[in-house]
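Morning run. Coffee first, then this:
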Amino acid sequence: MSPTNKNKLTAAGKKLTKQQLIITISMTFLCVVITYFFWGIITAKSALLGGLVALIPQFVFGLKVFKYAGATKAQQVVDAFYQGEKIKLFITAILVALTLKLFIIVPVAFFTVFCLVVITSLLTPVFIKF
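And here it is:
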């Protein structure tokens, strides 16, 4: 196990990331269930794809960012955030493009759930105490 995995300073960030993922996964499945009952299976699949396109890059970002912590690692922390954000944006763009190319979707459902999941992940730290 590498020393970065044992760093206690990164524990709070990893805990927050895990909580964000749980809440955003819950939000995705809640939206999918509601969409299924009101608009049917095709719209629900579109909603699920929108949630996944938001969740996957967020998960990758969480893995990338919380590797380093502490005053001696300040530059590595900043670099990890920048790299993580670049990777997140790239993966998001690729997933949106692939979804639009490969699947028949209902765009309103796809983008609504995508936006809800992104907003939920942004607001989670406001409501969670860690």
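The helical segments are 11-39, 41-65, 74-102, 107-127. Good start to the day.
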